[in-house]
Amino acid sequence: MEQQIPLSHEASAGDTNKQTTTTLPHEVVQCLENARFLHLATCLDNVPHVSLMNYTYLAESPFSTSPIIIMTTNPASKKINNLVANPNVSLLGSPTALPPAAASPTAPPTPTSSLASLLLNLNSSAMSSISATINGSARLAERASEEERFYREQHLENNTFDGGDPFAASSEPAVPAPSAVQGDVRVVVVDIKDVRISDWKGGVRDWVLVKEEPLVNGER
């Protein structure tokens, strides 16, 4: 039987099925690990601006124990002006059904067994049916700092593909990545505050990221 997409999602003006968590939901992590790009939304003086960005997701780093998203941009870009004045940003990610070898430069080869292929296709289908809206606070890493150097290296490594553009139909070079870490760029660090998962059936779930409470006498 054919299934039709809903014409509207469930009411989501407030918190919808809200939960708190100390770690990002598994679906969001998978989305961030498999999406090729994120849409970055900034706003200044009630005028929104959206950019398509390369990005790097880090669950933790030497400079943060919380999950963050790294991006780079021209220091004279509109998004820089917006986030400096208003650090509140939103990111939208929706994973593309790519085999792991195309989605990540360090991923293992695609399984060849029929069962493994079936599971991979099922997982890709499930993942491509959701989207994740991520809200957070953006800041610029201090120029020439160890933090900036570390994040630049991580971002460049994560966005270097031996096979070129995974979407290209031939070996012809694609348009250069807009946020390739070359020349005079600024590193943008987004500290994740909350996420919203939307599925193709219209379901919406909200998650708020909270810091894990320290242990006191072995208990929280």
Automatic annotation (TrEMBL):
InterPro entries: PMP_oxidase-like, Pyridox_Oxase_N, Split_barrel_FMN-bd. One of its GO terms (cellular component) is cytoplasm. Residues 1-20 are annotated as: Disordered. Residues 24-196 form the Pyridoxamine 5'-phosphate oxidase N-terminal domain. It holds the Pfam family PNPOx_N. Coiled coil: none annotated. This is Pyridoxamine 5'-phosphate oxidase N-terminal domain-containing protein.
